[in-house]
TrEMBL record:
Keywords: Arginine metabolism, Hydrolase, Manganese, Metal-binding. Its cofactor is Mn(2+). This is Arginase. Gene3D superfamilies: Ureohydrolase domain. Its EC number is 3.5.3.1. GO terms for molecular function: arginase activity; manganese ion binding. One of its GO terms (biological process) is arginine metabolic process. Binds 2 manganese ions per subunit. InterPro entries: Arginase, Ureohydrolase, Ureohydrolase_dom_sf. Mn(2+) binds at H98, D123, H125, D127, D242, D244.
Length: 317
């Protein structure tokens, strides 16, 4: 059944270690205008206020950089995403960096508190660090930990101050439901750049990772079968797509943390179309396009636009 699509634009880039992802949503829109695509004129576009002013002063939280600003983003996404879903629309989020994805998940659970949520995380990175384990302090490496309500103290490497702990616990509690997702209801696709602390908790929680080699050897249709089987007991599904899941040699380096040996753009497109066809899928997020880092003149945004167009057409068909 055809669904009404709402694009939700989030330009806050406070959780990444590089600058420029705040321009990512506009770069995708610019690619659409260059192509003559009217995707953003034919569908409703909403925006949330960005908090990039937090980048204009030093952060007080070395193990959770700008977590105070991120709490604002989580709360606003919780309100906006739940509102769009309650209006029977399908939100496609175009976000600067990946750190805000926990707020999107909060909004989904606020709209459907009784439904079991599955998450498909298409990314080069696991994003399951916590302030206690992070080597960088960049919070785009932590959104899944907030959704899972975990600290991973078993792998603790950092002594975290009380104020950071307070903000961290507030993040996990946004939407007043915690945990928001179970580890068995998460499937990674393309994750290939992780730290030891992440590997330990992924193993301990038995989170499935469909590696690029598996996508290549089995084909997209078999990967989708694995996802369907893994999430068969879930009522609804959220898909989070980081463009660094794709191989930079086949796209560009127009993303904050590119990693070699990724998905091809065609594989990513096929995976996302298949997931968009799943009637359980109710929200898709696209993140980490950074035109400031693109050595090929907005190529990453153009490739991403092609994927977003395909997703949108699939949802509306």
């Amino acid at each position: 059944m055809s669904k009404n699509v709402v694009f939700l634009i989030n330009k806050s880039e406070i959780t990444a270690g590089t600058r420029g992802a705040s321009l990512g949503p506009d770069a995708i829109m610019t690619a659409a205008r260059k192509k003559g695509s009217y995707i953003f004129g034919e569908n409703e576009v909403q925006k949330i206020l960005n908090v990039n002013n937090f980048l204009d002063k030093p952060t007080q939280f070395p193990f959770a950089k700008r977590i105070d600003g991120l709490l604002n983003v989580y709360n606003e996404l919780n309100t906006k995403v739940s509102e769009i879903l309650n209006n029977q629309s399908f939100p496609i989020l175009l976000a600067a960096d990946h750190g805000s994805a926990g707020g999107t998940i909060a909004g989904i659970k606020s709209a459907f508190p009784q439904k079991r949520l599955g998450v498909v995380w298409i990314d080069a990175h696991a994003d399951i660090h916590t302030p206690y384990t992070t080597p960088s302090g960049n919070m785009h490496g932590m959104p899944l930990a907030t959704a899972l309500n975990i600290d991973n103290l078993e792998c603790k490497t950092n002594e975290v101050d009380e104020e950071t702990v307070s903000f961290w616990n507030q993040l996990k509690q946004v939407g007043n439901i915690t945990p928001k997702v179970k580890p068995e209801d998460i499937v990674y696709i393309g994750v290939r750049d992780t730290e030891a602390q992440e590997n330990a908790i992924m193993d301990r929680l038995d989170i499935k990772n469909c590696q690029v080699s598996e996508v290549r050897s089995k084909g997209v249709s078999e990967i989708i079968k694995i996802v369907d089987e893994r999430l068969k007991d879930c009522d609804i599904i959220y898909v989070s797509f980081d463009v660094d899941s794709m191989d930079p040699d086949l796209t560009s380096h127009g993303t904050g943390t590119p990693v070699d040996d990724g998905l091809t753009p065609q594989e990513a497109r096929e995976i996302l179309i298949a997931l968009a066809k799943n009637p359980k899928t109710i929200c898709i997020e696209v993140v980490e396009v950074n035109p400031c880092l693109d050595e090929k003149e907005n190529t990453m945004a153009e490739i991403t636009l092609d994927i977003v167009e395909a997703i949108t057409q699939t949802i509306k068909t």
